[in-house]
Write a structure and sequence with these properties.
Strand content: 5-15%
CATH topology of the largest domain: Creatine Amidinohydrolase, Chain A, domain 1
Shape: globular
Strand order of the largest sheet: 4-3-2-1-5-6
Distance between the termini: 35 Å
CATH superfamily of the largest domain: Creatinase/prolidase N-terminal domain
Mean pLDDT: 84
């Protein structure tokens, strides 16, 4: 079955004539919010390598459509940071009169920020799009300049991207055990047994992790049959799964079973807050030491499938708290 989604088609680079106007629009939006600048990573909330068209923000803003990079827009300067694969491509696609071109590792964005920001500046970032380590690096760079790192309440670039594609909504279908090799219930039980050794749950936001765990497939991500969603697997082998209900196909709930509770995507932050309150009330130090891996403070992302199940994402809960302070759900 072909589950490819037209909404997860390739990036949408700017025409050169549009780039200056789009940069000016973003700067005007930043000024309206009292921000001196904004960080635009090549990332989505799931830290995917291949992004849906909805998340190709660097491509829309600058015209550069490589698979890695960071753009930083300040009041009167802007820079594009790319790795060695793209040093020629970025010059072909982006306007050198608008952006300084820098090497991602040899000329780090954090060094550029520390040298370019001024005392009292407020640098914005979208907390859905960064890992905890990236946020700490940005915060350290701001502190070196006497500036402040601020989690924004809605991505300002999205606010000026008038024709931004909708998030992908490809149908999610069962992946039967005959193809998966194991029943989803058995996978959940095995991981739950590990959690019972000292953790209450594991938070999953990596699409391949959730697709494997629940034996499901989708088409939200280019080149891979993955649906985008968030999930929490508990020590009793039950799952809270946060997903766009429009993606669910006939027979999927029966495939998942009663132990998988389905919630809308907007419920994820509240779910993590509830779990965090439960952990704090329990006073279980052992659980808290095993919480938290990826991603950033302020957004709702968590551990990759490749990380051992005991790492439950307290960092994801912290990200949601920061998002609430910023006024985001």
């Amino acid at each position: 079955m072909n589950t490819a989604s037209s909404e997860s088609s390739g990036p949408l680079p700017s025409a050169p004539a549009d780039a200056a106007a789009r940069l000016a629009d973003l700067r005007a939006e930043l000024a309206r919010r009292g921000l001196a600048g904004f960080v635009v990573p090549h990332a989505d909330a799931y830290q995917n390598e291949y992004l849906p068209a909805h998340d190709e923000r660097i491509a829309w803003l600058t015209g550069f459509d490589g698979s890695a990079g960071t753009a930083i827009v300040l009041r009167d300067r802007a820079a594009l940071f790319v790795d060695g694969r793209y040093t020629l491509q970025v010059r072909d696609q982006a306007d050198g009169a608008l952006y300084e071109f820098r090497h991602l590792t040899e000329q780090p964005a954090t060094d550029w920020l520390a040298a370019t920001l001024t005392t009292g500046d407020r640098l914005g970032y979208d907390s859905w799009l960064h890992t905890p380590r990236q946020v700490e690096q940005l915060r350290s760079a701001c502190q070196r300049a006497g500036a402040e790192l601020v989690a924004v309440a809605d991505n300002p670039l999205d606010a000026v991207w008038a024709d931004q594609p909708a998030p992908p909504a490809a149908p999610i279908v069962p992946h039967e055990a005959g193809y998966a090799g194991r029943r989803a219930a058995d996978k959940r039980a095995d991981i739950a047994a590990l959690l019972q050794e000292g953790a209450a749950c594991v938070v999953l936001t990596q699409p391949d992790s959730i697709a494997w765990l629940l034996n499901i497939r989708g088409g939200d991500v280019a080149h891979t049959p993955l649906p985008l969603s968030f999930a929490v697997l508990h020590a009793d082998a039950s799952v809270d799964w946060c997903v766009d209900p429009a993606k669910l196909t006939k027979g999927l709930t029966a495939h998942l079973g009663d132990a998988v509770r389905i919630h809308p995507m907007t419920a994820f932050g509240g779910l993590l807050d509830s779990l965090g309150s439960r952990w704090r009330r329990s006073g279980c130090a052992r659980q808290r030491t095993r919480l938290g891996r990826r991603p950033a403070d302020g957004g709702c992302g968590a551990s990759r499938a490749r990380r051992r199940p005991g790492h439950v994402a307290e960092s994801a809960q912290e990200r949601c708290r920061d998002r609430r302070r910023a006024g985001r759900p």
